[in-house]
Specification:
By secondary structure, this protein is of the alpha+beta class. It is built from eleven helices and eight strands. A hairpin with a 4-residue loop joins β6 and β7.
């Protein structure tokens, strides 16, 4: 007798892990300047693994291009903040165009002077504040890069899942056709009812539809993946490029083991870009507070010049100083508001860490559950259903089991195979979210383990 599935192929491989952690700086280093991005648009691939997919997304995704412009914007603000007050040159004429001895310019006194404002400290604080605002761009870009990397990884996994489901569906269709051929011979020999043949033909038709549907699912998921970096246009040929590219990866290469240390991952939360953003915004608020305080300080203004006396044809040196006086706490309300805002940012940061830690714990538990499901389905469920199917097949051929009961047993086995694929998918998706949550970047899928789930027959 024949068994439809070599279910031992579903055992977890001992090869490399699905995802490998790399530092955040490596991910940021993948973000090139705009000219590099434009040049990379012409890159073509015959195959794509996860590392290539993520690299291309970081290089080419349009949402990341805006950050280069934002960097230039804040660079301009910083440059503008560094401009000091311009010195002023003045010319004063006294005792001229009067009457008597002061008629005309014979008794005039003319003074040519220059004055300047001592605003060095104020300018430095403005520059520092502008730089702090500019530093948020790098963090925002890092957050967006991690989000896009995770999104690309999820789409990548979906392609692998659809490919495995398609392989399972094609195998199921092939077995249905073989069963139909065998049943047709039994009907012709008078050993089976024509009803069994009609049911078998309907089963073949249904499985053909499943194959057709999953073929489109594979194409659509590949299109979504490649749309992360490929620029689409009106050319139909260009829009069909994804069909020629092979997505390389193995769904069976599990990510993190189920023995995950929550404390180790929890310690990474404080270093994530989303939490770091609060720290940067607190520094900005502090800069604004210092700037507000400096703005309340009186700015001294000095002046110096040369005076000419027309009556004696002599010259004299003149100098002056101007010091504002009066109330010096004009920004008291502003400082109070900024201080409260700074305290709120600290509270929000703690709340975010608490929220992330809760999500992290749930994800770790879900990852552990996925591992448990994989072990249970692989070791306990599929072998039993395989044996049940084999016995049902024997019973059908000797007339002790109906065709419907035989097919129901086969369908239960197919459902278990599908559940196993879903369990692997959940494990990978949980891992992706854990790495995105903890600020880790996503790297290669194991290229060496490029064998899909084997749907073969065991010959007895």
């Amino acid at each position: 007798m024949n068994s439809y599935f070599n279910l031992r192929s579903y055992k977890k491989p001992t090869g490399g892990r699905f995802f490998v952690r790399i530092r955040q700086k490596l991910l940021l280093a993948l973000i090139p300047l705009i000219p590099t991005m434009i040049a990379a648009q012409d890159a073509t691939f015959s195959s794509v693994d996860l590392k290539t997919a993520i690299t291309q997304t970081i290089n080419m995704h349009p949402e990341l291009r805006a950050f280069a412009m934002q960097t230039q914007i804040y660079s301009g603000y910083t440059q503008q903040a560094g401009i000091k007050s311009r010195p002023q040159v003045g010319l004063t004429i006294e005792d001229a165009l009067g009457t008597g001895e002061h008629s005309g310019f014979k008794s005039a006194q003319s003074t040519l002077s220059i004055s300047w404002l001592l605003d060095e400290e104020l300018v430095q604080r403005k520059v520092q504040t502008a730089k702090n605002y500019g530093s948020t761009v790098a963090i925002e870009r890092e957050v967006k890069s991690l989000d896009l990397a995770a999104q690309t990884a999820r789409l990548f996994v979906q392609v692998l899942v659809n490919k495995e489901r398609l392989a399972l569906a094609k195998f199921s269709l092939a077995q249905a056709n073989k069963s139909l051929t065998a049943i047709d011979k039994r009907v012709n020999a008078g050993k089976s009812s024509i009803v069994d043949k009609l049911k078998a033909k309907a089963e073949v038709a249904k499985r053909e539809l499943v194959v057709e549907d999953l073929t489109h699912e594979v194409d659509a998921s590949k299109y979504q993946l490649f749309a992360q970096w490929m620029q689409k246009d009106s050319s139909n040929a260009n829009n069909q490029q994804h069909k020629k590219v092979d997505v390389i990866g193995s769904l069976l290469s599990l990510p993190l083991s189920d023995n995950v240390d929550f404390n180790v991952l929890f310690n990474k939360l404080a270093q994530t870009p989303s939490v770091s953003m609060f720290a940067t915004e607190q520094r900005i608020a502090q800069s604004e507070i210092e700037l507000a305080r400096i703005e309340t300080k009186p700015l001294w203004q000095f002046s110096a010049g040369l005076r000419r006396y027309e009556t004696t044809d002599d010259f004299g040196l003149v100098a002056g100083i101007s010091i504002p006086f009066g109330e010096t706490n004009q920004n008291k309300g502003k400082i109070k508001a900024l201080t409260a805002s700074q305290n709120k940012l600290e509270t929000d940061s703690l709340a975010l860490v608490h929220k992330l830690s809760t999500q992290l714990y749930v994800l770790i538990e879900q990852l552990k559950h996925s591992h448990h499901v994989i072990r249970a389905v692989t070791d306990n469920i599929i072998p039993v259903l395989e044996q049940a199917f084999s016995e049902a097949e024997k019973a059908y051929w000797i007339g002790k089991y109906s065709y419907s009961d035989w097919m129901n047993t086969q369908q239960a086995l197919l459902n278990a195979q599908s559940d196993l694929i879903a369990a692997y998918q959940n494990a990978h998706l949980n891992n992706i979210e854990i790495e995105r949550l903890t600020g880790s970047s996503l790297a290669n899928i194991n290229q060496a383990a490029n064998a899909p789930l084997n749907h073969k027959r065991n010959e007895k």
